[in-house]
Amino acid sequence: MQTSPVLAHIDADLPNAISRLQDLLRIRSISTDPAFKAECLHAAEWLARDLGSFGITASVRPTPGHPMVVGHVAGPKGAPHVLFYGHYDVQPVDPLDLWQSDPFDPAITEGPHGPTIQARGASDDKGQLMTFVEATRAWQAVHGALPCSITFLFEGEEESSSPSLVPFLQDNAAELQADLALICDTGLFQSKTPAIMTMLRGMMPEELTIHGPSRDLHSGMYGGVAMNPIRVLSKILGNMHDDQGRITIPHFYDGVPDLPAQIAADWQALNFDTATFLGDVGLSQPAGEADRTALEMIWSRPTAEINGIWGGYTGAGFKTVLPAQAHAKVSFRLVGQQDPEAIRAHFRAWVQAQLPKDCRAEFHLKGGASGSLMATDHPIFAHTRDALGEEWGEPAAFVGCGGSIPIAGHFKEILGMDALLTGFARDDDNIHSPNEKYDIECFHKGIRSWARLLGKLAQAQA
Amino acid sequence: MQTSPVLAHIDADLPNAISRLQDLLRIRSISTDPAFKAECLHAAEWLARDLGSFGITASVRPTPGHPMVVGHVAGPKGAPHVLFYGHYDVQPVDPLDLWQSDPFDPAITEGPHGPTIQARGASDDKGQLMTFVEATRAWQAVHGALPCSITFLFEGEEESSSPSLVPFLQDNAAELQADLALICDTGLFQSKTPAIMTMLRGMMPEELTIHGPSRDLHSGMYGGVAMNPIRVLSKILGNMHDDQGRITIPHFYDGVPDLPAQIAADWQALNFDTATFLGDVGLSQPAGEADRTALEMIWSRPTAEINGIWGGYTGAGFKTVLPAQAHAKVSFRLVGQQDPEAIRAHFRAWVQAQLPKDCRAEFHLKGGASGSLMATDHPIFAHTRDALGEEWGEPAAFVGCGGSIPIAGHFKEILGMDALLTGFARDDDNIHSPNEKYDIECFHKGIRSWARLLGKLAQAQA
Predict the structure, then answer these.
(1) pTM of this prediction?
(2) What is the CATH number of domain B208-261+290-363?
(3) CB under 8 Å to B100, separation ≥6 — which residues?
(4) Model ipTM?
């Protein structure tokens, strides 16, 4: 089974592949907001139907939350078996008024890197997910077969902490067994160099409410004498970092490893352009620990970030209210041996210890995942490095990843399976922000990259 | 002109007076939200029409914001001339789901002090304003005349910092001239003792936005390396009070006087029940400067309060965003010689000094008013003290007021006119909060109190 006719087929079929992606992007599958539950189901059904259309046995599998899609296709006897994972759910779209076009009406526009598809989920993760689907579709179309066995697993809760994922993996461990997982939810290094992830940060989300007076108060009557929960919340969260950018929660750094010298040297060799990376988003100074490089801050250091804060009167004009509550959403990116549940306990204890007598704290979220290290000595890492290098014209880099893709850890813990993460997103894709986009070049070369990897697997057996 | 038939008329007419107040409360005159502009005009027209119905020459007077209502009626030659001030605008009603009934469908319910009218504005200030209107209506009905000349001035922007008030007073200074202003926008002391204000705190509002990155960022890609404006805002606002409850902004306490020993002794004699005052709203500890009494914190000490805060993702679920901006609404209650513009400059400089290099602050609000001291030696203070004592069965207290009623300062500065503030609200009226109410007892005895004061003015001339 040759790769070159598959690549030719991919090139010729690109307009249809784009059209299919646009169909998927029109589905408003925002997992975090219950109002979009039916749309999430719709996206799952669309994917199962699409896999079925080129010979994959696929089904929508209910969970207590949004459904999974599972598909199977058998390769030659003795061929390797890979599981491909992606997620069909997307982030919320607010603030809507900052979008240049309807986030669910995918438009092809001219971007900084040529034609691009602009829509919520274009890059994270529908576009990336479809690169692999399109590659397998092309192999099926050209050869009527695939060079390896493939299990497809698409989830719909990745943007809302994946509450159903672990039980689903546990309940379906036998069915989902494979040699290695392929995950396409990451990006090119510096928007141009293909990259394979060697470490991933974990994530632990928290939502907290500070309760003060039993009802909203008028600051004319109570101002100065009644404890204001916004003041308490600001004081606590304002203490979370010291002047050197270090997180002050006791025991927070327990289990955070030093960066091995070899990795530090590799990263140094990447010549990461911190000034441009920050300058692209209007910044000039790394905000993390003063004694770390920017790449360390993103890839190998833990974080504590306030993702949302609200309380009191936030509408037009002014209201001299002392609110009964104040709220924040906080998240922690975790590395090394940091344990999400331990971090949660340390954070909560640290908040409690700072509360004045008349306030109490309530915590709302569960879940979280540790960081992970990849099994870079698995042979498929070399195949992928070769396939990516051939497609993109430069060697693939082994990099870290600041994002949290807890699925890699779950595959290891529950299925005993290592994972390989690569992807084709660009830093300016605006994921999780208004005007998310995925460049047609990334989509096209992404499909070709996976097709080449499948070709390497075919060669390896020949 | 005798007072007793007027009081009898008030008693007999109470059901009609309640019905008129309900009509006024049905008008959604929220001044701070532009969506309710027509309703504010509607309230002004209702009041002018009502004054006209019992012989007051009244008109709606446009301003660049919401209109004023001005009415005039002449008393006997040589009689004193008072100006009565109230405001017909009301606070926003959110959070709406905490209201037990529609805030603009005034219901008579049984409250902790007997029958009460529940609606937004019932206490602040429509109900209080109507106590004086009803007293003058009764005098007109019984005697066909009033014992003094009266100018009525109702504004519609009190809850939104009164932007049109000063220009209107300046432009109409001659027409609005009177011997003294009467203002009914305050409450009973400890919900039972009639009270006359001897000092008022001023107020200076600020809204600030901290700008960081040029767009919202994903914390997976930028977390740890990009400065998060919510972190910056929390740190700055969290520094605004020290551990002793003292405000840390440099020069903030410039011009704050020591409390005179006589006033301190008077207040001590009031036997203010701090435990009950705080306990009623679920609190137990005064939150102000550790070395001050609760009454000082409310009446004679300045404050810095965060009235609203918002930024990042605040909806259902979770979103690992680093937002481009974070916002807060802050207000300062001012006393003594504290100058609002100086405090604004000190606050802004203090914020700027704490900004990291990659953030900038934007400030949005103007306006503000100093605190004021009342001219308690004016003879009308003694008349009012007598009238209130007779109606309520216990001597009226001379008290401070934590709220800001900048109009008193403006009357002094622009019209050279002192003001007397008394009112009949109770501490549990929930002003600015859900389920605002005004007790029928307060409304009824409030009307009778003003009728008695008019009687004292008649006697003084006889």
Answers:
(1) 0.75
(2) 3.30.70.360
(3) B118, B434, B435
(4) 0.75
